[in-house]
Each structure stands twice: as structure tokens, then as C-alpha cells.
């Protein structure tokens, strides 16, 4: 009984990955992804000048925008709010961008 337990332990550790966390990997070295968390959620997201739709669209599955590896310009706009703009470098990981747009005084 003792030998069976000792022999089973290494197999269990290998199958469970020893409980170490895994990095969220997207693609195979030539793409990454970003998740947009924005308030207000109906603000429009632009990547490199192209509209990707509303920010709250990415709350579901898959919940992110795939990007080729490299630097991309992310812009978030909504009428009545100051626009947000940022350059992001995308690689094999999933990045989260959290933004609260500032309401303009009119």
C-alpha cells in the first residue's frame, strides 16, 4: 500500500502540473491580445485607426482582441468624453487595459 502511494505521487504531480500557474499564452509567437475594460462601456475602440466596435463587446467570450506582434495604437472614444490614446506592445500574452473616460464640461 505504501509503495503504491509513493509510486502514484509522481504521476499525480506530472498530470496536475505540480500546481504551478501557467502564463496566458495567445498565438504562437506572432500574435497577442488585449482586453478592454472601459467606463462607459459603449465607447468605441480603435486599433491602429480601425474601429473594433464598442468596448463592452469584449466582456464576453472570447473577451479580447487579437493583435499581431508589435506596437499598436489603441484609442477609445465617445462623444462628450475626452478621448483616450495609448501605444501598446503586443506579444504572446494577454494584456488588460482599464480606462475611465473623463466627461467633458459643456
Show the helix and strand layout.
Layout: H1 2-16, E1 31-39, E2 44-47, E3 50-54, E4 65-68, E5 70-77, E6 84-90, E7 94-100
Parallel strand pairs: 1-7
Antiparallel strand pairs: 1-4, 2-3, 2-5, 5-6
Please explain how this structure is put together.
This protein is mostly beta strands and 106 residues long. The chain has one domain: Immunoglobulin-like, CATH 2.60.40. The protein is built from one helix and seven strands, in the order H-E-E-E-E-E-E-E. Strand 5 and strand 6 form a beta hairpin. The radius of gyration is 21 Å and the shape is globular. About 8% of the residues have low confidence.
Short key terms for the protein model shown above:
106 residues; mainly beta; Immunoglobulin-like; four-stranded antiparallel sheet; three-stranded mixed sheet; 14% helix; 42% strand; globular
In short:
The protein is 14% helix and 42% strand. With 106 residues, it is mainly beta. It has a four-stranded antiparallel β-sheet with strand order 3-2-5-6, with no helix packed on it.
What is the residue-mean pLDDT, rounded to a whole number? 79
Shape: globular
Counting helices, strands and paired strands, the structural category is mainly beta
For the biggest sheet, the summary is:
4 strands, antiparallel
CATH class: Mainly Beta
Helix content: 10-25%
- The strand order across the widest sheet is 3-2-5-6
Strands, total number: 7
Compute the number of helices: 1
Architecture (CATH level 2) name? Sandwich
Report, as a whole number of angstroms, the end-to-end distance: 78 Å
The tally of structural domains comes to 1
SSE sequence, one letter per element:
HEEEEEEE
The CATH topology label is Immunoglobulin-like
Query: Which spans have pLDDT < 50 for at least 5 consecutive residues?
Result: 18-26
Radius of gyration: 21 Å
Strand coverage percent: 35-45%
Amino acid at each position: 500500500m505504501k509503495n503504491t502511494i509513493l509510486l502514484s505521487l509522481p504521476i499525480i504531480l506530472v498530470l496536475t502540473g505540480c500546481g504551478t500557474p501557467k502564463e496566458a499564452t495567445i498565438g504562437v509567437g506572432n500574435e497577442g491580445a488585449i482586453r478592454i475594460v472601459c467606463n462607459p462601456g459603449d465607447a468605441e475602440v480603435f486599433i491602429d485607426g480601425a474601429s473594433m466596435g464598442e468596448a463592452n463587446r469584449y466582456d464576453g467570450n472570447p473577451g479580447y482582441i487579437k493583435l499581431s506582434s508589435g506596437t499598436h495604437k489603441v484609442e477609445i472614444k465617445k462623444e462628450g468624453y475626452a478621448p483616450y490614446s495609448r501605444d501598446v506592445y503586443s506579444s504572446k500574452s494577454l494584456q488588460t487595459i482599464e480606462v475611465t473616460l473623463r466627461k467633458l464640461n459643456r
